[in-house]
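haha ok so turns out i had the wrong file open the whole time. this is the CORRECT one, sorry everyone. sequence first:
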Amino acid sequence: MKPTNCIAFQGEPGAYSHQACRQARPDMEALPCPTFEETVEACRSGAADLAMLPVENSTYGRVADIHHLLPESGLHILDETFVRVHISLLGVPGARLQDVREAMSHTVLLGQCRGFLRQHGIRTVTAADTAGSALAVAEARDPQRAALASPLAGEIYGLTPLAEQIEDRGNNTTRFLIMGRTPDRTPRSNASGGTQMMTSFVFRVRNIPAALYKAMGGFATNGVNMTKLESYMVDGVFTATQFYADVEGHPDEPALARALEELTYFTSSLTILGVYPADPLRASQAVAGT
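then structure:
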């Protein structure tokens, strides 16, 4: 496929996924897509070289449907990036904070600004997209209506920031995965020169007593740090459970290789989704937590 130098993201221009594209791949053109499925398909079809997908937020938790989408996407995780989510209340030019009666945004952002909205008596209006809310406010030209969105969305749609950094928590951060058609398992450095690698995979345990406990034992005995383990149902039945995991290390490293080998004894399926450099934020948070 001919390179496009393009990275696809879900949402309108100015979405936080757009900000993630600018942050992690500033040399690439960002391609907006209406849905996560269409974002994946843009990369899979060759319309884009990469896809940017949000997987979890430090305040709101995991992004719905993404963990179901990743194993079926046919794409591979090549990188991760963490975006600090600064939320602005954006109004039309000339509007004042005291004019605003309602704020429009995606339910995730509305939930992250409850304190500010309650303090100012602002009603909430749920929308499908943060940047799309900014666009709607710009088109309505109503000083009583504002949007909760990124500063980037304000710049794009010509809105005025009536209040900035209004999120309830000062460490509000979203983790994104950068996906591509071809896997890359070569050891490589992150943007800060760090060499820590991450491995992400999904698996299903065999239907035997204590299978999950036994499967996890290999990571503990080999000293492998598992940073995430989540379960979700598949195929619409309660008895079919798939697990998503992130671990520190490269599959070729002896400790992780042994842990993954032991895991296979207790699983009916195991798929590695990607091997990629750890974002520099991981190291800084580890230091802060010591």
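The chain has three domains: 6-83+172-180, 88-163, 197-289.
again sry for the mixup
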